[in-house]
Protein 1
Amino acid sequence: MTDQSPADTRDSSLAAQYEAYPYPERNPQDEAKRLLIGSPSHLREIDYWVFGAKRAQSQPLRALVAGCGTGDGAIMLATHLQRAGRPGEVVCVDRSQKALSIAQARAQTRELANIRFIQGSLTELDALDLGLFDYIDCCGVLHHLPDPDAALAMLEKHLAPGGGMGLMVYAPYGRTGVYMAQDALEKIAPHSESPQTRLDMARRVMRTLPATAWLRQNGNFGDHLSGGDAGLYDLLLNPRDRAYTVTEFLDFLGKAGLEPSCLMEPARYDPTLFLPDPRLRARISSLPWQQQAAIAEDLAGNMPTHVAYVVRKGARITPPDPMDFSAVPIMREIPGVELAKQMQPDHTLPFAFGTLVVPIPLPPQMRGILPLIDGERTVGALAEAVAPRGISENKFRKVWAEGFTTLERLNRVLLRPPA
């Protein structure tokens, strides 16, 4: 018998972690009272950011959730498809049998008939012989793998023509304090020890963590506070955990022949939103968007993750013109009447980019237009509805152009694909 290499021991430690503490902690019975919503893999986001609101809803969607864990993204997507009566299948792959069993129990509670579960490693997808997928979700997985580049290239091979992915990776600055604590705990309780021993040591450290520790100062995440044993372990004891700046993330995508169709939310990566100085804004706006995104990350300092929808290079599908009066706008999640209520007297919408709240200006008339957006009315129907209020077609066009562009960048108002 040969000794395991350091890489192998970390991998076996990672496997042991997710069997002992499936992440995130979920109770299948909770599915009877709530649906967890997030990004990526929200169906309306996939329709818009991956397929440009041009892929017919009647066309079956074949989706892979690569490393599904306890199932948050998979359950959300399968539920959205089933509720909308849309054809498709969500295939969930994870190497942890314990995590899969929890995801499967959640699906059973919801009586989802469009989802199936396969135990296996996403690094060995070829051996599973699953074919090609229109959409692939890989959320919070790549940064734990021994070779993220090879894993992403493997996923790209299983992407059908015209398809796309929803990805999430960790970002360094918003996780300030995490890696310091990880380094300390690796010295106190090396990854070669049992998960139970390591967790006990982490709990003991957290009880008396100095007030000066950066982990105490950082409010950009809360797994160690409210995520139970699984959350604490995943944040502070994960044996393999790397983070990507947005520049590194874009390079990572590029090596796999991919590019983002959307960094989520797009406005988060616009530093001019929190830098009001006109000369600064003018200078920043002249830079390539990649540099603008890097500046936003550098200065905001609170991005703990990067979430993106990605497609093959050169394959991004441009959504329909929102000024086309036959286009149908749709609220991503928050009803228009509720979003309108959030507008302040000065016609700004307070928007939280994590722990940073930025006032986003909107045309005053959007307060009356937002409640009319129901996913059925066309842009032309909206114009007709507000005409009796004294808003001419020309005025509506100006208001709608500014309002839609702003709210699209906040991922609040999108366009609906054709039936």
Protein 2
Amino acid sequence: MTTPEDTRPLLLVVATGMRTYREYLLRSIAAEYRVHLFLSTEPEWEKEYVAGWTVLPNTMDGPAMAAAATALAEREAIAGVLCWDEARIHAAAFVAQAVGARNGDPDVVWRLRDKGRTRAALDDAGVAQPRSIPVKTVDDAVAAAGVVGYPVILKPRGLGASLGVVKVADEEGLRANFAFTLAAEGPEPVVFDTDQPVLVEEFVSGEEISVDSVVRDGEVTPLFVGRKVVGYPPYAEEVGHFVDAHDPLLADPALLKALQRTHEALGFTDGVTHSEFMLTESGPEVIEVNGRLGGDLIPYLGLLATGIDPGLVAAAAATGRPVDLTPTRGRVAGIRFFYVAEEDTTIGSLGFAEEALPEGMDRVVVVAQPGAVVSPPPKGTVWGRIAFAIATGDSRAQVAERLAAAETAFDVKPA
């Protein structure tokens, strides 16, 4: 409960996301900030963490939210604006702009949201990345693949979580999969370039990683490196991640240089980002950059591994306050997602045998409910996940072993 004596800075947070995946952020932030939410529905679980909220018809309407924020700012000073929802970060930039917050530049955020614009900006700056050609039709895609060279990656220009991403080996595969990429959509629609909605990209090989970073006055500092586990080829489903507090990439000169140059090219100077790179034989190449904290609970893995609190880091970046980035832990944390085996499975029951779980489990969570009809990738990409497990340990091998044991302890039965 907020009192008149509460002098904590007021942070405006746009949307919260699913409790399972984002509550840890709001809990941390509420300890040091008064939080006002902009939501499209009445808050539920969020109420214990917030000082107030405003329910708006559409939290993807940036100018409308900016007007509401201006009215709020007339009553009390807003120290900063924060959003970790990919579909709403562009709209939130209008809000930040309206109240004079540090990350208030809609053009910059749109440059990150639209992967076609990202590629163009990085290309102009000479940043290493796969060659990419935006296209409209399958015939355009075939022509682009002839320029790029097979195999190629088909990718929607505006989605996250590897939705619609597929590797194709030849023209036959491209023609067979183009409609899959073109039809891919997120949970909420965002309109991108309808003339060229698909990117045909050069396939680059190596290990794919993610880097959550804080950016302050243009200086980029990596917080956590996520080592991806990708499954269901030729689709790029992210089935797990590992974060190591002592990952040598955190001090790797080539990666640090690539991070800095990438953010400079995109004009992103303040806030937090989730960047993805392919570690090729010739060095890191940019896959994409998101203007928010990472999903898939990767920042939570970072918290478990290092003790650095991603919620407080993001809030500090949004408000310009100092934040301690000193690690207080030195562990490895990992997550694994679970799926059904067959397409269009109606779930009868599912759960973990608690007695079979190993030491080092942070949590095991059932996401789907009995009666739900779910599929593995590609039909169930991301949305096909039915449960996940998180473990910690002293090494990646130990954490992987614990996650494998959790998978053995997990059982799902069709109806």
